[in-house]
Amino acid sequence: VAMASWKMGRTVNVEGVAVKLPQDAAAIDRGRYLFESRGCADCHGVDGAGRVFHDEGSMKIAGPQLAPGAASAVARYRDADWDRAIRHGVDPSGRPLMVMPAEDYNRLTDADLGALVAYVKRMPEVSGRRGEVVLPLPVRVLYGFGMIQDAAAKIDHSLPPQQPVAEGPTAEHGRYVANMCIGCHGPGLSGGKIPGGPPDWPAAANLTPGEGGTMGRYPDAAAFAAMLRSGKRPDGAAIAVMPFESLSKMSEVDVAALHAYLKTVPPRPFGQR
């Protein structure tokens, strides 16, 4: 437990980049789309007021308010602090942001990061809640011994920002979209038990092709889109835990591109992350 406390309080040295924040309506709308479709709303609420997304037993996790207002966790963020938090998983002082899945956002282009931040800064003022992370003793112990890592420990902070990829129903664009999946399904997308997730969460599915993979259920983009919109498998069975509130907001282009990419990734045995 002492080791866990030390790790939570350590400093991760990240310079941070002050990306350009756009002012035009098209870019702000792009930021809204990213906020609603990439998981931000699931943790922070569609209005940015903060949200409790797990409260059971000895584990409670609440995303903090991001929209303007008295409880906003980002009220004093400088431009470079947004990059540290979203792409690197650390707060302005360099301490790890617990539970924040920055590994999913580390490859955001400068344009998309700027659009997302510009949208959040323009959200209407709300009276929301502060963030809260209460972890049970077993999780803290596993975290202390490195068997569970925070996002800041997983990210290669030396990588330059990703260069833009042309939008379209292509595997290349799909690879960019798929970055949002790695926090739960692993960098190799082969799924398995989600490290640090609540004990009642099922294992993440294997998204790679071949035996043991789930993509065989979705032979085309239409079937894949139907699952993302409904939260159900083709046989009608509900899928647990997946952030369908956000996934259902994905555009047809992003869905088709993601499907195309997932058909091309190297097969991996289930659970190798």
Summarize the structure.
The protein is mostly helical and 273 residues long. It has helices at 2-9, 25-37, 40-44, 79-88, 110-121, 137-144, 151-154, 171-177, 182-185, 221-230, 244-247, 252-262; strands at 51-56, 59-63, 132-134.
Task: Name some characteristics of this structure.
about 270 residues; mainly alpha; 3-stranded antiparallel sheet
In terms of topology, how is this protein built?
Layout: H1 2-9, H2 25-37, H3 40-44, E1 51-56, E2 59-63, H4 79-88, H5 110-121, E3 132-134, H6 137-144, H7 151-154, H8 171-177, H9 182-185, H10 221-230, H11 244-247, H12 252-262
Antiparallel strand pairs: 1-2, 2-3
Helix pairs in contact: 1-6, 2-5, 8-12, 10-12
Shape: globular
CA(first)-CA(last) distance: 26 Å
Largest sheet: 3 strands, antiparallel
Number of helices: 12
Q: Helical content, roughly?
A: 25-40%
Listing every helix as H and every strand as E from the N terminus to the C terminus, the arrangement reads: HHHEEHHEHHHHHHH
By secondary-structure content and strand pairing, the structural class works out as mainly alpha
- List low-pLDDT spans: none
Tally the beta strands: 3
Radius of gyration, taken over Cα atoms and rounded to an integer in Å: 18 Å
Strand content: 5-15%
Strand order of the largest sheet: 1-2-3
What number is the mean pLDDT?
A: 93
Oligomeric assembly: single chain
Give an overview in words:
- β1 and β2 form a beta hairpin.
- Helices cover 35% and strands 5% of the residues.
- Strands 1-2-3 form a 3-stranded antiparallel beta sheet.
- It is mainly α.
- The radius of gyration is 18 Å and the shape is globular.
- It has 12 helices and 3 strands, in the order αααββααβααααααα.
